[in-house]
Amino acid sequence: MARPKKASTTLRSIDDCTAAMGDLLVATATVEKLTADQALDVAKAQAGFESEINAARKRAAELEAALEAYYYAHVAELERDGLQSFKLANGVMGRRFSPGALKPLNRSWTWEAIKAKVWEMFKGKYFLCPEPELNKDLLKDDLSAEDLAEVGCCVKHKETFYAEPTRPDPPSEVK
């Protein structure tokens, strides 16, 4: 457990604690206001770049589509020596195959039918049997501390301090 922070302010009475809680509320509200101001400034800055970014993305997509169209139109002359790419002076264009995904042969095959057929032909060879996993929540709820100790477990609690200042009602809600 981490060592608690050493307090730089010493409180000597409940009145000091009440004043400190009020100061905590003011500090918290100040952080929230400054964070909101920061977010507003960031949003304004982003808005200034948005149209240029969108135009550049659109241009990049158009150029990539044009390169792809050219590549597939001239694939026979571009792909030589078993390579599936072509090196340009300032880059490479080509094609990659993704790892193969197992799919049903056609619409007449469902995954349930495929499972049944694989089981019939190969038994359990291609089926996964996951290891049973310990239900820790149920174990913690059902067993006593002694029973938990017998199986090599214990329940540990982590203690954390909190101070939550009460916010006054907004003026519109004061009666």
Largest sheet: 2 strands, antiparallel
Query: How far is it from the N-terminal to the C-terminal residue, by CA?
Result: 46 Å
Strand order of the largest sheet: 1-2
Number of helices: 5
Shape: flat
Mean pLDDT: 88
Top keywords for this entry?
175 residues; mainly alpha; 2 strands; two-stranded antiparallel ribbon; single chain
List the helices and strands and how they pair.
Blueprint: H1 14-73, H2 75-78, E1 85-88, E2 91-94, H3 111-122, H4 136-142, H5 145-150
Question: Can you put this structure into words, describing what you see?
Answer:
The chain is mainly alpha-helical and 175 residues long. The chain is built from five helices and two strands, in the order H-H-E-E-H-H-H. It has two domains: 14-95; 107-156, no CATH class. 51% of the residues lie in helices and 5% in strands. Strands 1-2 form a two-stranded antiparallel sheet.
Provide a compact summary of the structure:
By secondary structure, this protein is mostly helical. 51% of the residues lie in helices and 5% in strands. The chain has 5 helices and 2 strands, in the order ααββααα.
